[in-house]
Amino acid sequence: MHASAATSRRGPEPPLTLEELLQLKWALGGVLALLGVWTVFFFDLSGTALLPAATVAIGLATWRPQLAARIPARVWRFAFPVLVVFVAADLVLNAEGLAAFLRLNLLLIVIRAVGPRQRREDLQLIVLCLIPVVVAGVLTVSIGFAVEILVFTAAALAGLLLITLAEAVQTDGPVPAGWMQVAWPPLLGRLWRVTEWRLVGVGAGLFLVVVCVATLLFLAIPRFQIENSLGFLQLKNRRSLSGFSDSVRIGDVTDIAEDTAVAMRAEVSDRARAPVQPYWRLVALDGYRDRVFRASGGASRQNRILTDVRVVQGTRGDRAAAAVPVWTCYLEAGVSRYVPLTGDFSRLLLREPQTLTVNGGSRVIGLKQEPQAMFAYRVEGMVFAGRFPALGLAEELTAAPTLDPARDQRTGGAVLYPHTLLEVPAGEANGRVLDRLVAEIAGGERLGPTMFAERAVTWLAQHHRYSRQSRLPAGTEDPLVRWVMSDTPGHCEFFAGGFTLLARRAGFPVRVVAGFHGGTWNAFEGYFMVRNSDAHAWCEVFDGRGAWFRVDPTPAAGGAATGPAAGEIQTAAIDRSWAARFDSLRMLWYRRIVNFDQRAQDEVFDSLKTMTRRTGRTAVERIERLAQALRAWFMQPWNMGRLLNWVGGAAGCAGLGVAAWRLRFVWWARWRRGRRDDPVRRQAGRWLQRLAGAGVLEHDAALVRDLQRLRFGPLGDRANLLAVFGRARRVWREARHG
Amino acid sequence: MTVGTPNSQSVLSEKALRQPAAIVRGTDWAGVADRWRRPRGRAFSWRWMLWGLLLPERRQRTLPTLPGMVLIALALAVGSAAYNTGSNILFITLSLLLASLVLSGVWSWLNFARTEWRLVAPPAFRVGQEAVVAVELRNRKRLLPAYALWFDLEVPLARLRHRMHLRERLGAGGERRLEWTFHPPRRGVERLRIEGVGSLFPFGFLRKTAGAGVEQTVRVWPARVTYRFAGAVPARQQWSSEEVPRVGRGSDLLGLRRYQPGDSHRHIHWKASARQRQLLVRQNAAESAQMFSLHVNTGATRWTRPEQFELLCRLAGTLAEDLFRAGRLDTVTVDNEPLLEIRRLRDVETFLDRLAELAPAPAGPTGPPARPRTATITFEPDGERGICARLGGDIAARA
After folding, report:
1. What predicted TM-score, i.e. pTM, was given to this entire model?
2. CATH topology for B16-221?
């Protein structure tokens, strides 16, 4: 006799107790609270000292619920009045409604996460955590919102499920006090053992269904263009890149260029017409004083304020719009309040009405304030040639007061526009240096603006090398003058500024333009990526006849005296790196989700309709072809031989099919003998159930015995298998119909 | 004091007599009708399927709870803001809120799908004694468990409502039994009913209730009563000296009869069964002893006080049980109804069922009275509150 080893089998793991459910619910509440609290981090609020304290409090309370239970009840009683005082003080001191609201929300989350929670408090916590997530999404329009809202939804639904299950176990009984004594590792071990992974898969599948249904709803919800802006959702919290503002200090643009983050994304309807190195103009600055180029008051007075507009007509005219590609640009938050444009255009379209500042002279368009989130706009008929008309400037220059401010009492010592375009640093020393250099460049000749520009650029390239690091030589002259007369390396601002001073001294009106130059083509989603590292400064020179032309004196940019001619098309550098891949996700987010409007919705439905029609048409054509082939086959002459062949073949196939179907159990039983999923047993069980449902089991005991034999009997006992099933089918049909 | 001496070999003990029979009946399995599976035994028809799609099941409701209303309000607020601003972020949030609501409805439906229940209760209760009502559940789904169901039980005669909760999950293919005990306060016909089956599963947004439509009728027997019996009846008081052979527990073979479910296997006559090719049981003659018949007169003129009538029912039932246990109960009758011969426990139960529904007859008994063969015990009021049992004019017992 063999001694059989006693094997102990563990029974099934008992389900989670009420205490364990309450502990899991508590943990999930803590996770939600942390998610809501950390979302506030995106806002960069002035009171972010709350954030570490809140994180510590929530983390500690979640880890050790018994600590939270030691807080006296009177603390919670007085929490609300204290909060009211705090909010009032915050509003009075900071005068920022949204920031105060978010801080209040943060405190409420902490209170709810740390304090005792019943069902009502759990629901409040979920809603409180949802608020910052949604507000952050609306303000930042970041792709991170997509991840965050999905994580929040999953956690919130799991939390609600735990609440319902715990209430089902608890019913009307008291909450067991011992649940606060949590030992997390054993609890997690219990959770691991109790978990049925099939059910986890089902749960994941259901969540996927939620996402799919949400996607369909998002696509299908009709869009109406009401578009009242959420005026109160403005946060003055983000530090803007000040390089692109009304005044640019030498070095500001280079500081921006240190950052490699993407500043702007631009997609074009016709990629073949995308230029290699476009110049994106943000600001055009005419005045200069003490290392700072700025937009003078006179130039600014030419600004036109357009209120609540969505469409801005350009100077190019609509007739040319149909012939040129359409650019859709997405400007990241914090870059500038000025809209990057390359020059003239036909139409500028915005997503929602905005208040704009338009300066026709400098070809600059600005928003009322810097956008807090990604800003999208569309431009039709944008010109890349680098030349645009300057109507009336020549007349203004001749009709305006003289350049010498010291003699003109009316100006009060200030240089007025348009003579700011000729402004150079005051002082004889500066003038002497500039005169000498101009003479050296001109070589004694009387040059036109284009020729002078070319020679000046060449001269600068010969005397200065490009470098982001630059050190100004000592001296008493203006810093730019000192740099020009030295051979110190310099960055684009030095080159642009130096060229400006030289050209102005030579009598040519010049302005400095700051913006972006270049960019790379993202091969994944097909758009231009313009990074902060592409920040650049160049010049525009007035040709004296009524047009500005671009001059880029920086040697690293190619040093071309003029910009590319109109219509010059080349392919841009293609970026296929991982960074480009990840950036394409963000572009996808902006393009397909954030910018999904009524037009895009119509396009989706149209494409769906087109696809359906095309599929239907293809199917109909195939059926027609098949019908024609059949008709042709049938119309062929028939004879006995052909008839016998086809009829015999069809009968043979039919017979084979019927035999295969009827004998399927036999073959399956032989092939899969002994397996758990024996189809014969399954079929016999089905027949037993059907006959029981029809109430005929008592009437045919022999049939029932046979079915039970097939269902429960030995595998070898499969006699009359088909006959038994056939009889069962007959009896069942008779019972149904009789 | 009780009638006779307890028979130690009696199959049915006193406790068994005091409790309803161990065999309980349950109702058929009920569940939320699956739209895609027709009810058992019902022939398929397109009309049934189409109407099922249009009309909800009776008493089937899905109503939002307070969190559900908050969710709906939140969705409305977010939707208004989304339309007002055209912000796709808000549209995304709105879509997720609505999708969560849809998931809640779908999962709630899945929770109910192929979950069946039935009411299980003994065929009779007794007033004042513990009555156990059970709801048996089974989950016929192959994969998904069922959670957080409750059953609203209504006991109209006792004027009670009770909610039974499924606290633990009911795994796929699993079965569970939920029990509830109560003490019926009054006799009569109790119609136990599962008013509804509900659940807040999964997220508590929606309260889904299905009209269970499960009902079971249970008779509530009158409670036993303590009485003072005057002892064995003198021989001169016997109505009939004739010894009537009757079925009992004696050793003399009285006859053979066909086997009926419930008969003891020890009484099967194997030889006769083999000869006749069917199961036959012995019927033994009872020991010779005086037998009694009970006659209950429900005339309203006699029983003017309801509490005395209740006492009548209790005493009649108690006497019937005690006499049957002693093997001395021959027949019972109510008013002028036909005599009910008492041979087995089921006959006593039938009499107790009759007592459960008994009410004073306004018009008095009609028709010729039945004439029992044995001494008859009758009942009449004894004073304002009491009741007495008479045997041949003499008082045999008082309660």
Report:
1. 0.71
2. Immunoglobulin-like (2.60.40)
